[in-house]
Automatic annotation (TrEMBL):
InterPro entries (alphabetical): Amidohydro-rel (IPR006680), Metal_Hydrolase (IPR032466)
Taxonomic classification: Bacteria, Bacillati, Actinomycetota, Actinomycetes, Kitasatosporales
Positions of the Amidohydrolase-related domain: 195-366
Pfam families: Amidohydro_2
Name assigned to this protein: Amidohydrolase
Signal peptide interval: none
Length: 368
């Protein structure tokens, strides 16, 4: 049996603290721009079927029980107890948590206690810039405070993450913008900005990326299909090639997140450039029973030391469970087939499984 001893979830979010009904649970289960079609349910998705397969036994129910029965049991236990049972049943030993979402989600410390695991913070660059803008009265103070905030965050975070690709597209000019260009963009953004407005200016997005690169921390870049409203026509990681090439040799690792359905492109870039890594986790949650096929496609192209597991979970502890179980099952199926065919030895398969599950993340982020 090929089964890594521990899992480092190299990209996820906290979980909701509130009780959920059927509609609100489904909204978190499949992040769409609206409700399901009349008379249907979002449990009838690959993710929904995976939740019904792996989560009910952790709450004392039979696999594949009806959604209504599962949610009733969840309410019976209460949000906190159900969350603890689910997170502790995932097998995840360390969480790297993006804290840059507006939702009322548990912070890394809460997630660690609930899951009896380690947790470390990932700082989202765009949210950091928006917070700085809220307290900066002039362009000069904004730019100075921004540089200071990124430097301060680098002292406690394990990585930075950027959603520039989802907000503007990945076809950003690769070189750092000039000082005058940055001041002009900051002035326009601050003057036009209303309360809660998100940062979408391409010049400032590039400026943030290069400040992060200078910090030396790993930089995670969102690619592939994102949240509703993302620029899905411009999130193919191949569009990052010029930026990737420009950052080679600078000492900062780039991690391409959520590459699906462009996961082969992300794997290809990880194979070409020594400082580029590919995430393989969130695609498995989306594809469910087809997860082994997707993982095999990533393994075709990326060196095994350049692939990282994540759940990409947000809101529901069930998504942490599903991410972990689908990854373990897909890895065992793919590598086990190669062992049974004689292409790999069992020892090599177990070694590679451990690398992808935790070893690579330990090396990139400095976590155990």
């Amino acid at each position: 049996m090929i089964d890594p001893p521990s899992l480092v979830d190299q990209y996820c979010h906290g979980v909701l603290r509130t009780e959920l009904g059927l509609g609100t649970f489904e909204a978190q289960l499949a992040r769409t721009e609206g409700p399901p079609a009349p008379g249907t349910t979002l449990f009838d998705t690959q993710t929904g079927f995976a939740v019904r397969r792996w989560c009910p036994p952790l709450l004392g129910l039979e696999p594949h029980c009806a959604p209504s029965r599962y949610l009733a049991r969840r309410r019976e236990l209460g949000t906190m107890e159900a969350g603890r049972r689910l997170l502790r049943g995932s097998g995840i030993t360390a969480y790297l948590v993006d804290t840059g979402l507006p939702d009322d989600l548990t912070d890394p410390g809460e997630l660690a206690r609930a899951g009896q695991a380690e947790a470390h913070e990932i700082v989202r660059l765009e949210q950091l810039a928006e917070q700085v803008a809220d307290t900066s009265g002039t362009v000069e103070s904004f730019l100075a405070n921004l540089a200071e905030s990124v430097h301060g965050a680098a002292a406690h975070a394990v990585a930075f993450t950027s959603v520039a690709g989802l907000r503007h597209g990945l076809a950003l000019a690769p070189e750092p913008p000039g000082a005058g260009e940055v001041r002009g963009a900051a002035g326009r953004w601050l003057a036009a900005r209303g309360a809660g407005d998100r940062l979408t200016d391409p010049v400032l997005l590039r400026h943030l990326l290069w400040i992060a690169v200078a910090s030396g921390l790993p930089l995670q870049l969102h690619a592939g299909l994102g949240a509703p409203g993302a620029r899905v026509d411009r999130t193919d990681p191949v569009l990052l090639t010029d930026f990737v090439r420009a950052t080679a040799g600078l000492g900062t690792d780039l991690v391409l997140l959520h590459g699906y359905p462009y996961h082969r492109h992300a794997a290809h870039l990880a194979g070409l450039f020594p400082h580029v890594y590919a995430d393989c986790g969130a695609a498995l949650v989306r594809t469910g029973a087809r997860a082994a096929t997707v993982l095999a496609e990533v393994l075709e192209l990326a060196p095994f030391g350049k692939i990282l597991f994540s759940s990409g979970a947000r809101g529901l502890p069930e998504l942490h469970v599903v991410g972990a179980h689908l990854f373990r099952e897909a890895l065992a199926r793919v590598l086990g087939a190669w062992v049974s065919e004689g292409a790999w030895s069992l020892a090599d398969a177990q070694r590679v499984a451990t690398m992808i599950a935790s070893g690579n993340a330990g090396r990139v982020y400095g976590v155990g």
